[in-house]
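Input record (Table S2, row 322):
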Amino acid sequence: MKQAPILPSSGLVNTQIPFSSCFKPRLNTDFILSFKPLTSSPLPYKSPILNRIQTMAQGNIKSNRWSLQGMTALVTGGTRGIGRAIVEELAGLGATVHTCSRNENELDKCLLEWKSLGFEVSGSICDVSLKAQRESLMEKVSSLFDSKLNILVNNVGTNIRKPMVDFTAEEVSILLTTNFESVFNLCQLAYPLLRASGLGSVVFTSSVSGFVSLKSMSLQGATKGAINQLTKNLACEWAKDNIRSNAVAPWYIRTSLVEQVLSSKEFLEEVYSRTPLRRLGDPTEVSSLVAFLCMPASSYITGQIICVDGGMSVNGFDPKNY
Ligand SMILES: NC(=O)c1ccc[n+]([C@@H]2O[C@H](COP(=O)([O-])OP(=O)(O)OC[C@H]3O[C@@H](n4cnc5c(N)ncnc54)[C@H](OP(=O)(O)O)[C@@H]3O)[C@@H](O)[C@H]2O)c1
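Output record (NAP complex):
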């Protein structure tokens, strides 16, 4: 039977990684936490290399690189789907979160649930497609968080699916206002607060439709393409203020937004066949990336649009009979 590696001078056993890799200094705190002291060992811990690694790991924990403790966040559209998962992820990692949606009953229900979980989350009724309501929302956020905001997650977005030539002027206006104008304006309104926090992070919810053509989604795809470019521009324009700007770009995630289209078995089969991981995504698989992009651990990442798509956007030729 293969023995677990033993570090001779330290009296520590690592049950998870090979002996040779123990001496590569790494910042991963799990590395240190995976060492278990040998209770029977009489030797005190002496190895200078391991000492250094341990100090680095402890520094990581102390510096809160992997935490959102003490941070403030605004997440739009937090009562369902991806937005709700983001609210819970950020609050669970220590942030104080404000969110908004249009349905008062649903918002109140969520707020009660979050309170019972011990999350610090407050909420406003706000339709982000309306300028006056966006302004009230930001005033509320400013008064709640002492005119400082660390995190802005522009999550609200909607979709209307039809051939390009069939869009009415009203539908064009709904999609442009909800998916782009509101986002652009919320960034403008949040800017003084983000700057005042000294450590700001904006995360946009884009879509793979902003990269590749998806049938009947020409206008939604155009709004997400615009979000992608805004992500890059803000990264450069606001870097001087220590505000980072990134986007997450999901493929099909099971939420109320796509419930109807995914109720077709044939459609679902086509989605699976186009997705290397052969499944839909879960909202928590997007929220984990959003949280990472808000943490000090991602402090050198800005201007990036990261797909959360089970490999869909890199899938080229995948013949069934080969
Ligand atoms: N689900 C996917 O497969 C998928 C894929 C790619 C990208 N996305 C993007 O991910 C984001 C979230 O999508 P989702 O699937 O989680 O959507 P969802 O299930 O429809 O949830 C949307 C959330 O936003 C709120 N909301 C919608 N319109 C609003 C408005 N005008 N003002 C304020 N709040 C509003 C909704 O609450 P109320 O209705 O009560 O206002 C709800 O809380 C969108 O930007 C979407 O484009 C989703």
